[in-house]
Amino acid sequence: MGRKYVDNPNHCTLVHTMNIIGNKWKPIIIYLLSNGPLRFGMLTLLVPTISRKVLASQLKELEHDGLIIRKSFPEIPPRVEYSLTSKAMALLPALRALSDWAQQSFPEIEFEECKIAELGDSPLQIQGKP
């Protein structure tokens, strides 16, 4: 099944943005990668409700749209890591604002703190690595 787009004859920037990241999984994948590169297996552990097929598809679409980098290592067994591009890092303040909005608008819900990297922070520093 191919990617579903909302028709955008007027070239609205919001419709375009939602066509790229507006599905169920992509903001979550971007959020998880905001703290540094992750392997496919780790992403499946962090989002256990996503099927491997859907995760692979979402990662391919994010890579195609220039939001993530897929880096293959010539090792046996093969190793692949996914990380955010600068385009995706520029989305983090918007994702943080959405997270803040939920916290303020729904005080009756006890949310976990989302650890979204600050723009300009090195993901390796956020993970506590040198």
Topology:
Elements: H1 13-21, H2 26-33, E1 38-39, H3 40-46, H4 52-64, E2 68-73, E3 79-84, H5 86-89, H6 92-105, H7 123-126
Antiparallel strand pairs: 1-3, 2-3
Low-confidence stretches: 120-130
Report the average pLDDT across residues: 84
Q: What's the CATH class label?
A: Mainly Alpha
The neighbouring-strand order within the major sheet is 1-3-2
CATH architecture: Orthogonal Bundle
CATH topology: Arc Repressor Mutant, subunit A
Radius of gyration: 16 Å
Strand content: 5-15%
Net shape: globular
Largest sheet: 3 strands, antiparallel
Count of domains: 1
Q: What structural category do the secondary elements indicate?
A: mainly alpha
Number of helices: 7
Amino- and carboxy-terminal Cα gap:
42 Å
Count of DSSP E strands? 3
Q: Kindly report the name of the CATH homologous superfamily.
A: Winged helix-like DNA-binding domain superfamily/Winged helix DNA-binding domain
Q: What is the helix fraction of residues, given as a range?
A: 40-55%
Secondary-structure element string: HHEHHEEHHH
